[in-house]
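Sample entry was shown:
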Amino acid sequence: MELRLLKELVKKGEGEHVEFKLKSNHPEKIVREVVAFANSGGGKLFVGVGDDKTIKGLKDAEEDEYSLTKAIDKYIYPKISYKKERIPVSPDRDVLVLTIPRSIDKPHYVVDNTGNRQAYIRVEDKSIQASREMKEIMRRGRGERDIRFQYGDKEEKLMKLLDEKESVTVDLFATFAGIPRKIASNTLVVMVLARILEVHPHEMLDKFTMSMSYQSN
């Protein structure tokens, strides 16, 4: 990547596919962004660029690259593929760019030193924890096979609820249908995979709406 292109990308700011980090002091935290990109639509991580779009670069980019690579290998499961490059921005400073493609092996997790693991996804310019439903959608959506389900009482109640509401949550659906949360969750996941519903991840609560393609049928 040329410096000119780097400046153009930075000028546009952070977003769904772009994240800036001024330093790599805490590589174990930066891996969250890497996982979020892999679990979503992919993206570029610029290390040496501030949130205010200042391109300061890294004084010892080789060392930063080493520590980040080590953290990615250590803390991410399953392993991800990505590209690294260093762009000189001054005689003694480089910006480190990691390009992370959308993964077919998602969900990927950040695994801490105690063995706890957490998946992250990208929503606009933030990396947020993936809900149980999002992890299931990622896991079960790896293949392109058609998802089939039986249209029964709970699905009928869901459609009725969506006639009244613009969107629903797992808990709202469970309460309305009088079913356990686990069954409500699985029903919504299956209907997303069947492309009848769309999921809109959020930091607090995921929302589910009717799929635009289904509505047009």
